[in-house]
Amino acid sequence: MSNHPIQGLMTTAMENLKQMIDVNTIIGDPVETPDGSVILTVSKVGFGFAAGGSEFMLEGKQNGTNTAVSSANGKPNEEHPFGGGSGGGVSITPIAFLVVNSSGVKLLHLDENTHLYEKILDFAPQVIEKLQHMLRRNKEEEERHEVRKNDLGI
Question: Whole-model pTM?
């Protein structure tokens, strides 16, 4: 059985989409600045694809079939005329920059409002450090209070 015409349409469209989208589309090429920092673009990529087609019945033909006899096997050729199309689209939106320099790696978002979780994670070590400091100070005050109680004989 030969390939259906829609298969050729889908294959061609998917191959073209595959050529457009690779890892460099999501993580851009590195750009080195004069101070030695390297900047990478991080993008959001979305794509869609659609294909469709139909076989048509010809007027005056029984069930739309071509009743001409095929020379290869002596049976009627039952192919219908085919019409179809396919299409696809790609959307690439930069969402952040990854900056790598001597002081470390930093992710700079273009839309600061949507990255609350990352901000929370960035502040977590500072919050934990402050909590530990408060607990240590509270424990030291309790120990001093106990020493005073013992000194007074209470």
Answer: 0.44
